[in-house]
Amino acid sequence: MKFVEQLAAKFDPGDILDSLPGAVIIVDRENVIEYVNSTAENIFRSSATYMLGKLLPSLLPYGSPIPELVDRALSTHSPVNDYRIDISSPRTGEGKIVDVHVAPMTQNSGKVLLSLRERSMAERINRQLTHRGAARSVTGLAAMLAHEIKNPLSGIRGAAQLLETVVPDGDRELAQLIRDETDRIVKIVDRMEIFSDQTPIEREPVNMHSVLGRVRQIAENGFAQNVEFREQYDPSLPHVSGSTDQLIQVFLNLVKNASEAVSEQTKRRITLTSAYRPGIRFARSGSQERAALPLEFCVTDTGPGISEELQAHIFEPFVTSRINGSGLGLALVAKVIEQHGGIVECDSHKKGTTFRIMLPAWLEETDAEGGT
Ligand SMILES: Nc1ncnc2c1ncn2[C@@H]1O[C@H](COP(=O)(O)OP(=O)(O)OP(=O)(O)O)[C@@H](O)[C@H]1O
Ligand SMILES: [Mg+2]
What's the 327 CA to ligand 1 centre distance in angstroms? Predict the structure, then answer.
């Protein structure tokens, strides 16, 4: 007997589906609902009896992208995902945001299985605010700091340098300390100045495998000498629409964090991956337009992970757990990726951390005309 048959002989498939944390809905080609599990009943606050035979769009807010996903899954014969879809209605209540996976059923042609996973409030706030809000809040501050701090600092530095030449030997060290410390502050302010740069990025077709290769090379020859690197790439990946220099900076920051995370571990490995995820789309802030972000790049390490409390804040500037860290690395990643119209997510557990970045592909027709 096949495994599935054994399973069906032992368990009621309905029972299995009812135990899943996500909502499962099966519709036919005409969007008529044929099956719902109990989680779907909960999310839509309706009974199965009410929902069966109804049209899927009647449960969803007007203009919901979900029926279009069903059409797309049917016409392409392949699964599609969409993230952060609002299904709030008077029936479901406010603030119902779900991730949706839509797949055509192989055995029953024309039938489509939707699975919906609700996002928790914390996760939603976290993901929406972290990389968007954090990067913005530092923008104004950075511009102010550049003016208000760098000018007086150069005065202090100059004075310290003068003192070095006139003070007795025993005090010279102190004057040097002033100079070194002002230099350190200038470096931090310089890094922050990148945040105040609001000019739109100059897009070009970016070969991400060469970007990742460069990053790996810089890392292996510098800060990550005792780390094993692995690369798992999809060689057919199209180009990203973005700025090569800025994306190098982004992945350098991620790989630097990863190598710092593994430095105390016995297994010190960083894995770089690329993949094509045609189903992934994302609502840009402040607009209804959903951009396709089909190119996914991950930096995974075998470090000790990030504690939950810290995870909620890592994309904010000045959040650091390192003695010499400035806490600007990930804030910069967030800012650059936002400017690219992409998303960055972090998955972390005790055995390691993955930073996942999704970016738009280069489209000759639109990008080459200089659109931002
Ligand atoms: N891969 C990782 N594994 C474990 N912790 C991480 C990882 N990446 C980031 N962190 C945590 O997030 C914090 C913030 O990272 P971020 O890169 O913004 O700043 P930093 O590395 O401390 O300083 P900087 O990058 O400015 O030198 C880190 O201090 C660390 O605690
Ligand atoms: Mg860092």
Answer: 6
State which of 119, 152, 176 marks the end of a domain: 119
- CA 320 – ligand 1 centroid, Å: 6
Instruction: Answer yes or no: do 285 and 264 share one domain.
Output: yes
Question: pLDDT tens digits for 140-162?
Answer: 666 677 767 887 888 889 889 98
Atom of ligand 1 nearest to the CA of 315: 18
Q: Is residue 372 part of a domain?
A: no
Using 50, 70 and 90 to split pLDDT, how confident is the model at 139?
low
Pairwise CA distance, residues 296 & 342, whole Å: 10
User: What is the atom index within ligand 1 of the atom nearest the CA of 258?
Assistant: 1
pTM above 0.85, yes or no: no
Domain that holds residue 12: 3-119
Work out the burial of residue 230: count CB atoms within 10 Å of its CB; fewer than 13 is exposed, 13-18 middle, 19 or more buried. exposed
Q: Contact, 98 vs 87, CB < 8 A?
A: yes
Q: Which atom of ligand 1 has the smallest separation from the CA of 352?
A: 3
Non-local (6+) Cβ contacts of 20 within 8 A are 37, 39, 115
pLDDT in tens, 196-236: 777 788 899 999 999 999 999 999 999 999 999 999 999 99
CA of 253 to the centre of ligand 2 (A): 6
Same domain, 136 and 181: yes
Q: Ligand 1 centre from 209 Cα, in Å?
A: 24
Please tell me the total count of domains within the chain.
3
Ligand 1 and 192: CB distance under 6 A: no
For residue 8, what pLDDT is reported?
77
Q: Are residues 11 and 160 in the same domain?
A: no
Residue found by looking up tokens 């080459």 in the block:
368
> Could you tell me the CATH number of the domain that includes residue 225?
3.30.565.10
